[in-house]
Amino acid sequence: MLIIVAALGYFVDIYDLILFNIVKKPSLISIGVSTESLENTGILLFNVQMTGMLVGGMLWGILGDLKGRLKVLFGSILLYSIANIANAFATDVTTYAIIRFVAGVGLAGELGAGITLISETMNKENRGYGTMIIVTFGALGAVLAAFVADNFDWKIAYIAGGVLGLALLALRIGTMESKMFLSTQHSGKTSFAFHYLFTNPKRFLKYLSCILIGLPIWFIVGVLIALCETFAKQIGVIGNVKVSTAIAASYIGLSIGDLLSGTLSQILRSRKKVVVIFLVMAAAVILTYLFSKNISSKVFYILCFALGFSTGFWAIFVTIASEQFGTNIRSTVTNTVPNFVRGAVVPITLSYKSLAASNGSIIAAITVGSVCLALSLISVLSIKETFGKDLNYIEEF
Known about the structure:
Elements: H1 2-30, H2 38-67, H3 69-87, H4 93-121, H5 127-138, H6 141-151, H7 154-168, H8 179-186, H9 196-199, H10 201-213, H11 215-225, H12 228-234, H13 243-268, H14 272-291, H15 297-310, H16 314-323, H17 327-343, H18 345-359, H19 361-382
């Protein structure tokens, strides 16, 4: 039941997270944004949403270690569902931005809470399968978002996401709290511990490494896919390119990639080896995507699928973070790490825009992407392997 709830929660999470990039153009035009301002306003609102996720990651993570993983799981679903419905009634950019920030806060809690619960509940040798199922199924929420946005008004698309989230809360019956957390709570070991991640240099470097591993994923999602229309023009794609189709193709790839990476990590009994394999793959696909010339829109969508597939180590990345730290701080880490990565889209997109203004889109993307890949590779090589690690322990501060 926990896997089902977490997987469905992440499905709706991804639906909402990706929906904005799909409907931003028609929704912004609808509220009066000029054609000339569409790209900059879209980036602004996306960055506001990601900033909300950064704030929410810290909030939900801390609450998860103090009050329990299950409360965070359902609290986050409730918040982003309400924000989704409210977004359908936004009539100006300021209101739109406030709602995207609130939605970002809500979206920040679901994945971390779900992964933490599964990591602490399943057998240590098989928990990778649980996190794999959550992310593999959840990523398909982007496909539903693309379908709904293509066939219905943007307001209906937002309301549908909110209704899906509220309906999911009915599955709360039958779910259970982590026994590791309950044991820590009963022993009086729960406390506000976020600052302890920064007080010890070794612990801080481990935490920072966990964050940096995920940078290439959101460089690909936040730049190469979100701005696919720009890159399609640059490389001379023949035919029209739709953002919704590119996002759907990339997230189908991501879902299949997560299925493969999760299975591969169980076979190889290693998280690190799988991440390295996918980073090498990502580098190759990024170069192919940026240097293709005069290809058809169909081939372009295949490249978007390949980009998504190469980011299919998201489940492994979050699992690595969850397995690096003790029970009394695990929720904080598992919630903040993926949301710091999502929040990193802000400096990533700003760096890209700054470089693109003087060097062009292709050079800017290669530069920013290379930095993200290098930091990720260095980080994954620097941390310890966690496959099969016993997670029932407390961090001593």
